[in-house]
Amino acid sequence: AQVKGDQAERGANRILELLGKAAGSEAASLGSALAALAAQVKGDQAERGANRILELLGKATRSEAARLGSALAALAAQVKGDQAERLANSILELLGKATGFEAARLGEALAALAAQVKGDQAERGANRILELLGKATRSEAARLGSALAALAAQVKGDQAERLANSILELLGKATGFEAARLGEALAALAAQVKGDQAERGANRILEL
Description:
Blueprint (H helix, E strand, L loop, with lengths): L4 H15 L4 H13 L6 H15 L4 H15 L4 H15 L4 H13 L6 H15 L4 H15 L4 H15 L4 H13 L6 H13 L1
């Protein structure tokens, strides 16, 4: 992580070359190495690495997915503009089919892109996370909840109103850690929600 400049660029290129052929725990280790260089890598390198990790994530074991997911989030945070939009679309596509810990890791990566994503992308991601939250384990729900709050903060206007209504509907049935995560997401929307939505949310949280 102390490598800078040209050395970092050369190192990242070499890791990307190896990552293109690697699988399993080797790929997870290379992903971690690339993530350690994340602050130094160029946008196109970050995008290439993130896309390769997305390919690997679906075939990974839980421990490999944990390492790949952390690497993906670190790289996603370095991607900007059109690259961020493309990466967000790729993540959203996979998130539509993913479940369990894979979905939680994809949610985290999308959250790392939150400041870069468009309102409709943020809304799509948030809605998919809402679908997943009810079936998640406690640790998955923690990750999904953090991602939901990060995405909710990027949603405005009508999108925010629709998302708040969806959260309130789920909050009416949720308990325990799921309800706590939904409450956090609603709080992230606080500046956007209407008075009656805020009141309903507050009343439900008080009941829990």
